[in-house]
Amino acid sequence: MLKALQIGYKPRETRHPVLIPARMRVGQSWIEVVIHNLSSGGALVASDEAPERGTYIEIRRGRQTIIGRVVWRKDRFFGIQAQGRLDIAAIINEPRLASRPRSANDPESSYERRAQPRADADARIARQLENSRRWSAAFQFGVFVVLALIAAGFAANELYHILSRPFSELESHL
């Protein structure tokens, strides 16, 4: 059925759902991002400061680098089209470095230049994600409980009216 609806459309690449914290460079600044899914041609990424459509970006995860262009944006989520094919397994299996990799020009730099180490930023993002999931699950449960109570109230009211008529007729005959 789905194939019949997609006549004339390019088949969509397989998406691999992941939650990978990474760093993204937009212009001269670096910001924290989370990659939500990967395909061989691009990725779905989220950040507090989503870049505008058409912006060229660089995403780094350990030694893996993704260079691409933002093709869509909605709230804090955006999709990128990579310049080349992505090695999904390498990106997923890349260990998160504790510090910035040493460059050939700067072999003695072993200190962390950032105010917060990467591990702290990863932990903060993971905690924020878990707190958001817990809050949304609790809110969804609360909404369902309230709706169930309202439906039960309506059903009880209707049942009362349906059963009260025969009992009032029975009472009048006695």
From TrEMBL:
It comes from the Bacteria. Residues 12-81 form the PilZ domain. The chain crosses the membrane at residues 137-156. Residues 99-119 are annotated as: Disordered. It holds the Pfam family PilZ. Coiled coil: none annotated. Keywords: Membrane, Transmembrane, Transmembrane helix. Residues 110-119 have a biased composition (Basic and acidic residues). The keyword Membrane applies. InterPro entries: PilZ_domain. One of its GO terms (molecular function) is cyclic-di-GMP binding. This is PilZ domain-containing protein. It comes from Sphingobium indicum.
